[in-house]
Amino acid sequence: MAGLVLCEPTELYNILNQSTKLSRLTEPNYLCLLDARTKHEYNESHVITARRVKQNAMGEYLVPESVELECVKYCVVYDGKTSSLDDTYFDDYEEDKKDTEAGAATQCARVLEQFTRHPVRILKGGYERFTACYHFLRTQKIFWMPQELDAFQPYPVEILPAQLYMGDCKQACDQQIQKDLKIKTQVNISEETAMALGAVLVFSTLGLSRSSTAVMAFLMHSSHYPLKRAWKHVQTCKTNMRPNRGFVQQLSDWESQIYGSVITDVSEPQY
């Protein structure tokens, strides 16, 4: 079995907003997002592209028939507010009803993990915490046509929650994105700014090379990350980021300047 892991809200946000030429949500084996809440709660609103996981007459969760879980890269399950992998239920008192529901995602994930190659992610804090951070990614829409997913406009990836984002020129020009993310400052990578004024969006033409280089350089300076850690963090947020070789060497030089010596071997294949 692949196992279970907790998924921070920012991780699901970044999974939903990965893109190449189109949103990666168009790929059938990219993401299986499942809502383990009640039918009423799901119909009221849910995270975009999420489908409600069904139960049989015995209350056991059923594996979605339309999804080949062994081929799916990300399988994410959420309920109302689960915050740990503990699936203990409380049935003694009516006032514990909310606690009873808190383990729904874990119960569902334990069924799904038998069919996946990758760990099943359980959204930490559930729907409540995610939508408190990203209210603009909730919907009542149940069915998504392929052309609708093709037209889905991803948001910039989040590097530091509610503080630092990385995107492209098109996203930088989108007023709705600026409003939803509360962007106060935009940096066209040649400028310097501080995040004390609010959230910052760093962007370049495609949002892959120059912007990722600038963000890594910032993390190395402000968070004292060596290049290897900064690279891994940004790549986790933006999976197709790709600084060119010249920028990689500049980052290596920057690391040497900060730490007094080179820590990361940029001749390794991942760089």
Automatic annotation (TrEMBL):
GO terms for biological process: negative regulation of stress granule assembly; positive regulation of intrinsic apoptotic signaling pathway. Pfam families: DSPc, Rhodanese. GO terms for cellular component: mitochondrion. Residues 31-138 form the Rhodanese domain. GO terms for molecular function: protein phosphatase binding; protein phosphatase inhibitor activity; pseudophosphatase activity. Gene3D superfamilies: Protein tyrosine phosphatase superfamily, Rhodanese-like domain. SMART domains: DSPc, RHOD. This is Serine/threonine/tyrosine interacting like 1. It comes from Pelusios castaneus (West African mud turtle).
